Amino acid sequence: MYLNSILKGLIVGSAMSLPLLLPKLSYAQPAQQLSSFSSLNYPDRYIRHQSFLIYIAPIVASDKLGREDATFRLIPGLAGRCRSFESVNYPGHFLRHQNYRLKLTKQTDDQLFKEDATFCIVPGLANSEAYSFESVNFPKHYIRHSNFELWLVKSDESRLFKQDATFFISRPLTMYPPSVPIDPGTNLIPAEPE
């Protein structure tokens, strides 16, 4: 709850704010650099990749592959600010939007890839205790689920849009299966490296 009270109303994607306001979470601490993301309005469903497309899907403790597919390393944004989401079980592959569909794609060195794979973490559009992910190269476009698929969509300000574009950041499912209780509101966001 301490972390959530600090982050309430704060744009988390800002490189300036993270080191100053978050407890010191270090990239040297693996449990704190890895995260999983559950949907606000489908709390049993987590962001995961499957066949290199991104979905929200239920993950159970016995599904080792599902838990790995639903765990990402939050790193400093490839575009020079905000954050990028690197797959844990496909290192060097990042969550990115392409033709508005969210995909898992092998990193390339071109600027378009870097921008497509970088998102600012902002207070949740539907719940200030959660988070939304805004595209760096398409302002006001957020990661949103629709029919359990993840898309980059411009906000229409509707209640449903806000719910579909809001996620909880939680402990990594690779280390903490869904059957392990997690205190509501527990979020782990790594600080910028010093």
UniProtKB/TrEMBL annotation:
One matching Pfam family: AbfB
Q: Highest lineage ranks of the organism?
A: Bacteria, Bacillati, Cyanobacteriota, Cyanophyceae, Leptolyngbyales
Q: What Gene Ontology molecular-function terms does this entry list?
A: alpha-L-arabinofuranosidase activity
Q: Which Gene3D superfamilies match?
A: 2.80.10.50
Domain Alpha-L-arabinofuranosidase B arabinose-binding span(s) in chain numbering: 36-125
What is the name attached to this protein's record?
AbfB domain-containing protein
In terms of domain of life, where is this protein from? Bacteria
One biological process GO term for this chain? Answer: L-arabinose metabolic process
